[in-house]
Write a structure and sequence with these properties.
Blueprint (H helix, E strand, L loop, with lengths): L1 H4 L3 H13 L5 H7 L4 H6 L8 H10 L4 E8 L2 E6 L6 E4 L8 E6 L18 E7 L3 E8 L3 H14 L4 E6 L3 H10 L7 H5 L12 E2 L2 H16 L7 H7 L2 E3 L5 E3 L6 H15 L41
Parallel strand pairs: 4-7, 7-8
Antiparallel strand pairs: 1-2, 1-3, 3-6, 4-5, 5-6, 9-10
Helix pairs in contact: 6-7, 9-11, 10-11
Protein name: Terminase large subunit gp17-like C-terminal domain-containing protein
Organism: marine sediment metagenome
């Protein structure tokens, strides 16, 4: 314990005293009251969505990262490092030789703690998934949607024309930017999920409903069990504070964020529901069983998203 947590002898002595005198000799109660790490705190608080085994494995997968933004100039997209940790990407791999998906969850301006008038609000979140089985980048921001849209488009172009999906209806500005550019690989939920029609559709982007929310959570849990690595600390950190509330709904813990995590889960669904090796043809159903990956075998994740524009309380 001393080596793992860099404790002084006095701190270790206090720990022993506190377990005996303040926690009735119960070490688990001590960990609940005085957690040494975020993971230890999470294990003893609420009802976690991601089990301790998954969190332990993903903690070991974390790597060194860079912070920066993607910049387009004269038809070339590059990555430029910045000296900040907001309104930027957290990147562990700039290798764009492969196939990728990107989820985008734009901020709603909602308070993270409705009981606290001074509570911070949610963030913009994005995540890039390499379809060989790991996340390579995550974005966290509080800026204008125009800036988010530019970063999504630039990252998508950099990462080999990745499949992308802004979350709707809040991401309409982002979606319009992609459409104005003529970006080819925007997720089309009606064509992918609803019919065998070969006609084009206006149902672009990802819509989170009571149904698709379950897809997101269950799909993420399954691919992590199958060996996918999150790599990026921002994604992992939000996993450690993602819990089930009293109704069983998967939500962020009070005062914590889940924006980057939801973006990551959207990226996973794009991976499961879009084909590989080519731009999405409307003649293709995009069913998971057509994809030759062990962690794609998720044919029974949930029901169908009918693309209804009705607002949901999800």
């Amino acid at each position: 314990i001393m080596v793992k947590h860099s404790l002084a002898i006095e701190q270790l002595a206090w720990r022993k005293w506190a377990i005996k005198n303040k926690c009735q000799g119960d070490e688990d109660l001590f960990k609940q009251e005085y957690p040494a790490t975020p993971l230890e705190a999470f294990r003893h608080a609420g009802n976690p969505v991601f089990g301790a085994g998954i969190l332990h494995d993903q903690e070991k997968s974390l790597v060194d990262v860079k912070y920066g933004v993607f910049v387009r100039s004269k038809g070339v997209t590059t990555f430029e490092e910045v000296d900040r940790k907001i309104n930027c990407w957290q990147v562990h791999s700039l290798n764009n030789d492969g196939q990728f998906t990107i989820g985008c969850d734009t901020m709603e301006g909602k308070s993270l703690d409705t009981s606290d008038k001074k509570s911070k609000v949610d963030n913009h979140g994005m995540a890039v998934f390499n379809r060989n089985g790991e996340f390579v980048a995550a974005y966290k921001g509080q800026g204008d949607q125009i800036d988010v849209a530019e970063q999504l488009l630039s990252a998508a172009l950099y990462y080999n024309t990745a499949f992308v999906a802004p979350e709707l209806p809040n991401g309409m500005v982002v979606l319009q930017k992609l459409k104005d550019y003529g970006y080819p690989n925007i997720y089309n939920r009606q064509t992918h999920d609803e019919t065998l029609s070969v006609e084009n559709s206006d149902n672009l982007g990802w819509r989170t409903t009571l149904v698709t929310r379950k897809w997101l959570v269950d799909g993420m849990i399954q691919i992590l069990r199958d060996g996918v690595k999150v790599r990026c600390p921002w994604i992992y950190d939000e996993m450690t504070t993602f819990i089930k509330d009293k109704t069983g709904k998967a939500v962020h813990n009070t005062g914590k964020h889940d924006d980057v995590l939801f973006a990551a889960m959207i990226a996973v669904q794009l991976h499961l529901r879009t084909p590989m090796d080519e731009i999405y043809p409307f003649e293709t159903t995009g069913e998971e069983e057509d994809q030759a990956r062990d962690y794609n075998n998720l044919s029974v994740i949930g029901a169908i998203d009918y693309g209804d524009d009705e607002e949901w309380d999800y």
